[in-house]
Design a protein that fits this description.
Elements: H1 12-24, H2 29-36, H3 40-52, E1 56-58, H4 63-69, E2 78-80, E3 86-92, E4 96-103, E5 108-115, H5 121-142, E6 150-155, E7 158-160, E8 165-169, E9 174-178, H6 180-187, E10 190-195, H7 196-204, E11 209-214, E12 218-224, E13 227-228, H8 260-263, H9 265-276, H10 283-292, H11 296-320, E14 324-328, H12 335-349, E15 358-361, H13 366-383
Parallel strand pairs: 3-6, 6-10, 11-14, 14-15
Antiparallel strand pairs: 1-2, 3-4, 4-5, 7-8, 8-9, 11-12, 12-13
Helix pairs in contact: 1-2, 1-3, 2-3, 5-6, 7-13, 9-11, 10-11, 11-12
Length: 387
């Protein structure tokens, strides 16, 4: 679909005003002018249509601010009306789908999770239709002033967001599955499809950063000047395939020595079973044994994994120079075993001034993945961004 109901239809000033108030409001017109570089008259011209359309509202300045202002006309800061516009985001995994409704400020207002009894594309799409309708109902109950029409979906693997196609998702066993078009036809919504990690990166709102995730593979979202980097063949950010590991180990990609062969959750569990001699050992159990000091060899596996990830992050920083790197993911119950090795390897290999890069280690909650998809849809619906 091409219909958009967002306020920014070709006026950069409108987009700038709404974006800065959305990020930092409430703000006075003078503050908006300073942050956007727009003149006072330009701010007024851009703000008025947004006020008329209900995206912004004038709020009364506090008594303190009025007193500080002294003589002259009292300031009337502008604030976003969060329920004027919203989006739905759904993260699809190999066994479930998690969905959220977010408002114009990117805050989650409702959430929903459903199991997937089949990974056949038509069955998944039918389940997504039901979820979208249910979440639209939740949005109506939350008091949104207009029906939700913007939907974002995130998937693991290679995604062509321009065409709305999942090119390859190994965990779903999908190849060249058209997703956006049938969902748009069945729901009447505007649907955008994005890689799960890239969507998560967009939601962070940073201009130059990398988002590295620990899971069944080591994923990475690269954001440069505010834009996610996909690469010519949709494979940018495959940090887990840097050949920094044991060259005797073959990766599922066919290469040898990929970080994934020793640091992904699947590989860690496989190696832990070999080391412990327990074919049914789960990775959480291995982590507990390592943490308790009962099994030094298992502890070394986690140390080794952290070391490789730290080297991979340092390589990434040395190549692209992001301001921030966030490391997290679904599987962070044993992050305490890997944190120090990650930080030490990163510090030992990162170059020059890049040592100042802000490296943060934190878990990612299930709703955050879905929120990432919702924010992609929200920004495309309101600001018409092309990701």
């Amino acid at each position: 679909m091409t219909h958009r109901i967002g306020p920014v239809e070709g006026t950069p000033a409108e987009g700038a005003v709404l974006a800065v108030v959305r990020e930092s409001g409430p703000l006075s017109r003078a503050q908006i002018g300073r942050r956007t570089g727009l003149s006072s008259a330009a701010v007024t011209r851009a703000a008025q249509p947004l006020i008329d359309a209900g995206f912004l509202s004038q709020v009364k300045a506090s008594a303190v601010k009025k007193a500080q202002a002294g003589m002259g006309r009292p300031s009337q800061p502008l604030a976003v009306n969060p329920l004027r516009f919203g989006a739905i985001g759904i993260k699809v995994t190999n066994d479930s789908a998690v969905g959220v409704v977010c408002d114009l400020l990117g805050e989650v207002r409702a959430s929903l999770q459903r199991s997937l009894d089949s990974l056949q594309p038509d069955r998944v799409i039918s389940e997504l239709v039901a979820m979208i309708q249910a979440l639209r109902g939740e949005a109506a109950r939350e008091g949104f002033s207009a029906p939700i029409t913007e939907v974002g979906l995130s998937f693991a693997g290679e995604v062509d967001s321009d065409l709305g196609i999942v090119r390859y998702s190994p965990f779903l066993e999908w190849k060249d599955v058209v997703v956006a078009q049938p969902l748009e036809q069945l729901t009447g919504c505007n649907v955008v499809v994005e890689n799960e990690v890239k969507a998560l990166g967009v939601a962070e709102g940073l201009k130059n950063f990398a988002y590295v995730t620990l899971g069944s593979s080591i994923g990475c979202a690269l954001v440069v000047n505010g834009n996610p980097v996909q690469g010519a063949f949709l494979v940018a950010g495959k940090l887990g395939h840097l050949p920094l590991g044991d060259r005797a180990l073959q990766c599922t990609c066919g290469g040898f020595g990929c970080i994934n062969t020793e640091a992904s959750t699947i590989s860690l569990e496989r190696l832990a079973r070999q080391v412990a001699g327990k074919p049914d050992l789960l990775i959480d159990e291995a982590a507990e044994l390592a943490r308790s000091g009962q099994h030094a060899e298992l502890a070394e596996l986690f140390t080794r994994a952290g070391h490789l990830i730290g080297l991979g992050i340092a390589s990434l920083v040395n190549l692209l120079g992001p301001d921030n790197v966030i490391f997290g993911g679904d599987e962070t119950a044993w992050l305490d075993l890997m944190a120090a090795p990650i930080e030490e390897a990163f510090a030992s290999q990162v170059y020059g001034g890049a040592k100042e890069t802000d490296l943060r280690l934190r878990p990612v909650l299930a709703n955050e993945w879905a929120l990432g998809a919702a924010v992609v849809a929200l920004e495309r619906g309101v600001f018409h961004t092309r990701r």
